[in-house]
Amino acid sequence: MHPEMEDPVEEIDGDPASDALFLCDHASNALPQAYGTLGLPPADLNRHIAFDIGAAWVTRHLASYFSAPAILSRFSRLLIDPNRGADDPTLVMRLSDRVIVPGNARIGKSEIEHRLVHYWRPYRAAISRKIGVMLAHGVPPAIVSVHSFTPCWKSKPRPWEIGILWDNDPRLAKPLIEALAGAGFCVGDNEPYDGALAGDTLDEQVTCLGLAGVLLELRQDLVQTEPKAEALAEHVAEIIAPILERPELHRKAFFESRIHRYL
């Protein structure tokens, strides 16, 4: 049996009556000692394949700005991806951005289940508990899940500075896209990825509960150092603050999903 991380989840308490809860699925590049580097050169753990560069700094700063709770992972997505559904074939990546992950290449069902039990499920459970506490204070929170993306993909530049990913609930997504564009950002509406992903954190923990939420994608060159990340977080916080005051964001509302859920 592998010795596990003492705590795979970082929780920032914040005010449980806050308007917002911040999440960071890919906050860390850490791996439990027993897994070494999963057979990768150590330098690969500092790349985007291991975590979302800058996202944790942004998340903590947003939580501080709003005195809001936050939940962050403490393990690399190379171990298991907390933003994938439990049945998603990319839950444990064997190949990531053309890099073979030796420690995952021949992984079996029992090892995947082990990682689900000790890492994936505790992260999801922490989010559920925090949402439950916030709902008990009477106001459904809006959820912002913070990620980052590479400036180029397969040598093709990505023009967006910020992407807003969402499924079919426009309550937070649409006004935020409009406000960010109005502030001068090049904003992607479901770019550089589509926000409709069955079983991902936003789908399972937010949309399925009727809560308003978005996945906030930030281009990594804008958040690759802590000062840059905090400066961008401050700017985004000032933009999102008046939007979070809208009462429609704090009522449960259910929208038909665009995604086909697992059977």
How does this structure look, described?
The chain is built from six helices and eleven strands. It is of the alpha/beta class. It has a single domain, classed as Aminopeptidase (3-Layer(aba) Sandwich), CATH 3.40.630.40. The strands form three sheets. The protein has a seven-stranded mixed sheet, with helices on both faces. It has a two-stranded antiparallel ribbon with strand order 4-5. Strands 7-8 form a two-stranded antiparallel sheet. The longest helix has 28 residues, at 109-136. It is globular.
Mean pLDDT, all residues:
95
- Structure class: alpha/beta
The CATH homologous superfamily is called Zn-dependent exopeptidases
| Number of distinct helices | 6
CATH topology description? Aminopeptidase
Largest sheet: 7 strands, mixed
Defining traits:
263 residues; alpha/beta; Aminopeptidase; seven-stranded mixed sheet; two-stranded antiparallel ribbon; 11 strands; 16% strand
Strand-helix topology:
Elements: E1 9-12, E2 20-24, H1 55-66, E3 70-73, E4 95-96, E5 99-100, H2 102-105, H3 109-136, E6 142-149, E7 152-153, E8 156-157, E9 162-165, H4 170-182, E10 187-189, H5 201-205, E11 213-219, H6 226-244
Parallel strand pairs: 2-3, 2-6, 6-11, 9-10
Antiparallel strand pairs: 1-3, 4-5, 7-8, 9-11
Helix pairs in contact: 1-6, 4-6
Question: Could you write a compact summary of the structure shown?
Answer:
The chain is 31% helix and 16% strand. The protein has helices spanning 55-66, 102-105, 109-136, 170-182, 201-205, 226-244; strands at 9-12, 20-24, 70-73, 95-96, 99-100, 142-149, 152-153, 156-157, 162-165, 187-189, 213-219.
